[in-house]
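Q: What does the assembled structure look like for these inputs?
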Amino acid sequence: MNQNLLWIEKLKFNEQGLIPAIAQDYRDGTVLMMAWMNYESIKKTLSTGEAHYWSRSRSQLWHKGATSGHIQKVKELFYDCDGDTILLKVDQIGDIACHTGARSCFFNAVQIYPQSNFLNSYSCSKRGQ
Amino acid sequence: MNQNLLWIEKLKFNEQGLIPAIAQDYRDGTVLMMAWMNYESIKKTLSTGEAHYWSRSRSQLWHKGATSGHIQKVKELFYDCDGDTILLKVDQIGDIACHTGARSCFFNAVQIYPQSNFLNSYSCSKRGQ
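A:
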């Protein structure tokens, strides 16, 4: 095996042979999306310099942006301390990562209710039942 | 049910009842770690304003930083377009997210070999076998 690929052997793929991969804009740090990679998609990403994932819905290698043109040129690639997640810092072509046309897939914001606010709203809801 | 928690019903938990959660520094966008949440840990995170995960190794609710002091105060919480990943923007107390003492868990950088460089290094390796 190519010595340069030995690090892949350290990764902890799940029972489907997949590992989560976070794509982050290399310019401003925006988290763009999270998808899944397998061994083949990691090798393709390294050899082409463009993000390849494994499409769980289509059960096939997915060259991100092959159809839309919104490819991701990989500037840096990291794996985490326990080898079960990958982080890609990418140049997102078209500045659109999401299939909805949004820049980032993370556009659904949720309100946080620390301490008493949460309990109050929960109590109100319970009383309203 | 509290109307404020209805969004959780939209999430796609995996067969273990878990969903990946990315923690990102809310100040400079550094991706700090990726861990897993279940329904209970999401509710705890919302009610306390501090990140709670599900520890897969210990099979228990994990209040991040309860032992080390490196808690994560959640500033913003998002879920993605298809409801299968969460993003937390956090104030990382102590500026250390990783159990190794590193700021971020993503400290292992991998070299990328686009196009001919990759093929050349692969060929060299093959020849050396």
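Strands of chain B lie at 19-25, 31-37, 52-55, 60-63, 72-79, 86-92, 108-110.
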